[in-house]
Every structure is written in C-alpha cells, then in structure tokens.
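dumping this here so i dont lose it
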C-alpha cells in the first residue's frame, strides 16, 4: 500500500525524496513487539530493526520490490511491498 496511512510511525520526520518503507506489526489488531527484517527481491537479508513498543518500524531503502518479514514471539509473517523512488510505502503485518 503506497501513500495510505496505516498506523506506521509519524511521516513528519521523513525527509523529502527518501524512499521509505514503514508500518506496524499487529496480532488481533493490537501492536506486537519483535523484529522486522528487510529482504531484497532475491530473498537476501538487507536490514533488521526492532519494533517500537507500539509495533512500529521504518526502513530507508532503494526503489524496488522488497519482502518485509515480522519476527515476533510465536509467529513469523512476510509481506511483499514495492517501494517507489522518493515515496512512502506503508504496510501493516498481521501475525
């Protein structure tokens, strides 16, 4: 989902022109803490960040197709996203 507000971190801190992937990890509609990995189009590990206390995460990435993988206690879930140059791509990962 590109451009739609889905509950990720506040977009106010994003610099114009940054290619950004952000969102939140939820379980039954509630935020979940854990880690989120960014995998490139070939499935190779690129980055990992912890979620905030409210399940939020953010990556600065290159344009292209990415897999965002949530790793939380008892569950793993993947979502494929397409980031556009200079755009904000938001995703909610339900585990």
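and the seq i came up w/
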């Amino acid at each position: 989902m590109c451009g739609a507000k889905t509950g990720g971190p506040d977009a106010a801190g994003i610099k114009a022109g940054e290619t950004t992937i952000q969102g939140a990890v939820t379980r039954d509609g509630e935020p979940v803490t854990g880690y989120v990995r960014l995998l490139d189009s070939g499935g190779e590990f690129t980055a990992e960040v912890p979620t905030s206390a409210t399940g939020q995460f953010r990556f600065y990435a290159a344009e292209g197709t990415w897999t965002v993988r949530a790793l939380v206690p008892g569950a793993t879930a993947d979502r494929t996203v397409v980031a556009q140059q200079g755009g904000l791509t938001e995703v909610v990962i339900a585990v």
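The longest strand covers residues 64-72.
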